[in-house]
Amino acid sequence: MTRSLDPPYGAADPGGMLARIEALADQVGQALERGAAAPWGPRGITPDLLAVGALGGSAIAADLTAGLYGDRLPHPLVVVREYRWPAFVTRASLTLLCSYSGDTEETLSLYRQAGERGVPRAAVSSGGRLTEWCERDRVPLTRVPGGSPPRAALFGSWVGLTGLLHGLGWIEDPAPAWREAAAVLAAGALALGGRSPEAANPAKRIARSFGQKRLFIYAASERLGPVVTRVRNQINENAKLLSHSALVPELNHNEIVGWEIPGEGHAGSAVLVLRDREDAAQVSKRLTLTAEYATSRGATVHEWSSIGEGRLARLASLVQFGDYLSFYLALLNGADPTPIPSIDEFKRRLAAP
């Protein structure tokens, strides 16, 4: 059965995931307005590092921020996806607890432990126990609008996190860069969105060529590692497909050998290469050679480059492309892109006595 990638989508998208993807530019604008109206974060401290405690869709904003400003931050930004802080998180540090629902058990554990250690705290949430605890303990909190899957609320948290870094004096005012990003996202919605027909829409065409093949996502490690993680996770959650990611130059020292033996198996594989104009020349050459090698083994290979002038806008454009790609793969896979029943069931069983 050949499924259409053009509207109307009707029962294929009952949760309205496409509408959320197409509203990314608005999400940025609304987050900028909230940040301008209510600047947030601890005042009068100069932490030795910022440790972000988060999981899943609530953590990726921190990963993207670390990649975005990795060559500019005067202090480390680390992401902790565990129940306990590492020993280097001390009273001289700042912890940021991010949980969209406010009820992520690992994040709540980190909140309690930071309090026990006397480590300064701040938080991002839409509600739940995390919000209640912050109000009780007078911990600085920025609230993001609720009612959305966490992965679809990325830009609200991402804008807020860059605002916190600016408040700490670690980066320049990010608002102008975010305004450019919003413009790029608005243009991307026209080019890649549902109303753009498949014949003119590269995200739809690439999704069609990938189908249900095993998808490998490759990019340069210096800045795009978090973007690759985001795209992979969106394919997992929206399209309900397994995918794999690896980064150059490391993959050329190990994973590349996995393509060595030609065979029919590789015909069931696809490679998405993500590029950015700041990729180092030698790294860009490695990506080209890797793509050529995978093609020679029988894989379907496509490339996609970032769009925009500023670094923030370019990273945002790649995130947007991954969101659209995952949505169209969901349609081809016959999957409802919004619910995540396996995660819901896992949490239910985990909470059972």
Question: Quick recap of the structure?
Answer:
This protein is of the alpha/beta class and about 350 residues long.
Per-chain topology:
Elements: H1 17-22, H2 24-37, E1 50-53, H3 60-69, E2 77-80, E3 94-99, H4 105-117, E4 121-125, H5 128-137, E5 141-143, H6 154-167, H7 175-192, H8 202-210, E6 214-220, H9 221-239, E7 243-248, E8 269-275, H10 281-296, E9 300-305, H11 311-333, H12 341-351
Task: Outline the structure in words.
This protein is an alpha/beta fold and 353 residues long. The chain folds into two domains: 157 residues, 3-Layer(aba) Sandwich (Rossmann fold), CATH 3.40.50.10490; 156 residues, Glucose-6-phosphate isomerase like protein, domain 1 (Rossmann fold, 3-Layer(aba) Sandwich). The strands form two sheets. A five-stranded parallel β-sheet has the order 2-1-3-4-5. Strand 6, helix 9 and strand 7 form a beta-alpha-beta unit.
